[in-house]
Amino acid sequence: MSGPANREPVVGHLAQVWTSMADVGRAIGTRQWVLSTDCPGWTVKDQFSHLVGIERLLLGDTPPPPLTDVPAHVANPFGEMNEAWVEARRLVPGTEVLAEFVDVTQRRLAALRAKPADEFDVVGWSPIGEVPYREFMQIRILDSWAHEQDVRRSVGRPGGRNGVGEAAVLDRCEKAMVYVVGKRVAPQDGSSVLFSVTGVMGRQILIAMDAGRASPRGTPSTLAPSVVLTMDQETFWRLGLGRVEPARVLASGQVRVDGDAAIGHKVLASMAFMI
What we know:
By secondary structure, the protein is an alpha+beta fold. The chain folds into two domains: 5-160, dinb family like domain (Four Helix Bundle (Hemerythrin (Met), subunit A)); 172-270, Nonspecific Lipid-transfer Protein, Chain A (2-Layer Sandwich), CATH 3.30.1050.10. It is built from nine helices and seven strands.
């Protein structure tokens, strides 16, 4: 028997992340809305515009017309759709975009809380393929929290760390590393890569190759991995989300490579998986 949807943890987690995003938005100075961020081509205001667009789309609102000129930083049709929402707000003041963000996220939360609980089990489209709606909403947490951090880094207001948003991001990055090692790097059978991630939400992620496939394994006990990549959790997810260049974190000492340097450097160069 279905229970009320507002008992779904993912809804409360979205509320936490969106509240934190709105809080930092209220602290943004007039001149800070136009600051560039780690997302190529996007300002602080554009980060909010993007989230407004996605949530309005999920509410069924009419999207803006397609772009006539596609910027160089847009790499695929999904990016073109995102950019259209951003472009439609280029001339809108940041404070108005923030007000729209607060309004649309409140409408989205109301819709999610009214959704029958069993509908969160229904499999359908998402940016990562056909998944239960619950998992799709986990991706919305990931995306929203990642853009909150883009904003916070740009305006110099750290926060929102070590909570449900970062947990969602770290979990997705961990899962993606199996694909990174197995498909993008594809070292020989018997090779293994250990991501030694430090921090409050740190973890040891060992991925081994066997019969041409990569799979997660338990933490090594007797056999040493082919390469160990040591970094803190922020560096791990920033690399996974494509927010920082591998050469930059290597040069700054934020990543240490022990063991097979060739495999290690190729893994680092391949970690960015976000579309």
